[in-house]
Write the structure tokens for this entry.
Amino acid sequence: MVNLGQKLLKKAQKIIPGGNQLLSKRSEMFLPNFWPAYYNYSKGCVVSDLNNKRYYDFAGMGVTSCVLGYADADINKAIIKGLKKGSMSTLNSPEEVDLANRLIKIHKWADMARFSKSGGEACLIAIRIARAFVKKEKIAFCGYHGWHDWYMAANLGNTKNLDEQLLPGLGNKGISKSFKNSIHSFNYNDINSLEKIFKKNKNQIGIVIMEPMRFTKPKNNFLKNVKKLAKKNGAILIFDEITCGFHENLGGLHLKFKVTPDMAIFGKALGNGYPISAVIGKKKIMNFAQRTFISSTMWTERLGFIAGVTTLKKMKKLNVQKKLISLGKQIKKGWIYAANKHDIKISISGLDSLPNFRFDYANKKEISTFFTQEMLKLGFLAKEALAMTYVYNNKIIKKYLKSVELVFSKINYYHKKKLKLPIKGPLKHSTLKRITF
């Protein structure tokens, strides 16, 4: 049977640079030449490809955005109602105020909110506001914060500076040289690396932006020490919770760690897949948004606000995050069992609601590609990193873990026999690799 997704992708690559809009959705990141690539419909945790083949999604649930599942009935009902009333107008939608109130109520340390449509935009908005307030140019960062020049400028001095933050191979093509030496990276759970930045750039670091957690839990009061150091040096502390927010608890992960920033950024899970992102913060800082130009027509579009409000209501009503944590623990336990049973070396990390594992072998890329290939045959979109969703249940997870066991047993067989894994196509890659035709 012809893979219609791959057939369409080849056409797309001729008219769309890279073939699509998001690096994290490129087929080459999963299973080159064989990944379904496009979907016909998605509902719950099931995705149907262009060949009408159905898969359970254990590959991130819309890049961690759909904690309530795909095409949630309550959100869609609210969206349709709002659509009939008009999604755009010369006037503003009242849902904008409603969403701001709800976010501030959850995060009692914050006083004000601004909105946009994507995570990268929200990061840029936060940086602009913070710079206007603090009047210092340089930034210290830890983690992944989007594609804009202010962040990518870290690679102007050394094209590998961002390699350890999340994604290697990003380079510095197209980045304005005027940002050179303005942004400096520090390492998670290494307070000394941040201290060195402040010491080397005395009285010049105005912003510290970081993810409160991605893979490793904070140790030795790391987040509290970052906050103290930022305050001591007169820098604004921004927590980027685009990925982790609303997965582990209702609100930012920083609430769980009991460390409040000056500003925080949310997206993805906030709208359960609909385009909405937010920047919240203290009034004295946020009001500087009025002293610099930050404005966009589509930020006022109604449906994103409706999705955000409805998502927050449902999360609170169903205590969604409690289930996400429970399911994640179940999966981590299943991975350990399968690995021990079939003598597979893996390392497990991440939040319980955003669990992931890694194959601990020299040829881990080869094993990872084989894992995705074999799981696809068994009806799963799968990789080593997952995002828990409320629509998973014990039956689905049991089926997933049984499939993981089967694939692990195959990996063990080929490894012990010292045979090459039977991979149909090229190996997956995890870098910004140019797609050629």
Observations:
- The domain at 73-318 is CATH 3.40.640.10 (Aspartate Aminotransferase; domain 2).
